[in-house]
Amino acid sequence: MSKGFRVVQASDVIRERLGISFDKAPAEVTIKDSSEPSTLVVLGKRGAVEGVVEALVSELEDVVVWWGRPGLHTVVKARVSRVDNGKCILELPGGVEGVLEACDSRENDFLVVTVVKPSFRKGERAIVSRELRVDGDYVSLIKGSGRIEFSEFIRDQARRAELSALAVSKLMGSGVGVRFRSNSQYAELHEIAVEIDSLLRRLREIDARSRIEGSINVIHEGESTALVYLASPAKMRLDELRGRVAPTAVGHHQLKYMGLDELVDFAEYLLANRAISREATGLLLSYVLNSCVGRGFVFNQRKLDGGVVKLTPGVLEEVHVDQGSVKAVFKRVLRSSGVYDGLGVEKKPGDVDYMVVETGSWVISHNYFRGGTYIGSYINVNTPPDIGEGVVEYMDLEVDIVVKPGGIVEVVDLDKLEEASRSKLINEKLFNKALQTVESVKNNPMAHVYNPRSNQEK
């Protein structure tokens, strides 16, 4: 709101928290949780979505943004590049590949399709459909569907009946289906009727344009969609903002994203009733981790291209708390053979990695041993980790520092970090923070090398 945005159709809880009245205006942008961990979906009208994403980046800073290409429900003319087991692999505008299921077309045919799931990362295929779709504020019309569908948020049966009657009066016999969007539950029926007429005209225009000979192109622009990954510092900033309007535990968003909802809700209930201080809630994570000593953990290394590397699981061996920071030491017994990148040393099954993870730290330290003999350390530069019950997650920032026996230090994969910056996968702040972290580790590498014999960092 401080950035000039209006919150519309807010729940009772949100209105009370923000001190605002109910605004039934149609939403131009929707922000919701993604199925991907620590990630928001921002979708809606292009200019409005760009403004919201810009505000999120400006306010939270430590985020990674992936834009959907082409936009959701964009209608395009595409070329069949090949047919694979009944699926057509399509060349879409912008060099993006798409996939159309149950396709009987031939190679080099041109098809008009609607994007139902954009491509967000390099190498990721968009999913498309032959049903043409156009979106308005209140409804979406789908040619070839014939169905009447409702947003899950339209729960009132009387309202559904009114909207169904309107759809039948406008669309019967047209072969066009309709999906009533959540905005329609508050709109006047005549406003929705006017929009249906307008979208029907747009469908006819799209149909006419699709029949014109031409190359791969966008026929109708759909909605902009962005995925916004929230690194741990961004979640802390959200905690600060939430704390201005509601009792908020330290680490609220991190702990919620890591599945500790009940623990957070209980702590905030106590906080709201002044039974504990906010500082006391800062002990939640250390409490959870201390109860997990001796238990197995999984490690999800998120990649800037959207992939996830699942490292060999490990057992939590130690937890240390110091001035609000929590440091955890995990023991991972490696299973596979190979070569340690950067170290140039053979990797063997049974080698041990003492992995040191610290909240708020921009590095994770991997310290490799074989039969008690030190092999070397790999200092991974990443966003500060999110730690939950049985899971550690972080975003790899590509560059790493290798520490060899004798204290020899080398920086590896700096070119990958620079390429991520050039291609706008990371913003300037994240790029500079990664470079600063590299310099800090180079200046004092042994501060990040863990020695299990002395049970302390050298």
UniProtKB/TrEMBL annotation:
<keyword id="KW-0378">Hydrolase</keyword>
<protein>
    <submittedName>
        <fullName>DUF402 domain-containing protein</fullName>
    </submittedName>
</protein>
<dbReference type="Pfam" id="PF04167">
    <property type="entry name" value="DUF402"/>
</dbReference>
<dbReference type="InterPro" id="IPR007295">
    <property type="entry name" value="DUF402"/>
</dbReference>
<dbReference type="GO" id="GO:0016787">
    <property type="term" value="F:hydrolase activity"/>
</dbReference>
<dbReference type="InterPro" id="IPR035930">
    <property type="entry name" value="FomD-like_sf"/>
</dbReference>
<dbReference type="InterPro" id="IPR050212">
    <property type="entry name" value="Ntdp-like"/>
</dbReference>
<feature type="domain" description="DUF402">
    <location>
        <begin position="305"/>
        <end position="448"/>
    </location>
</feature>
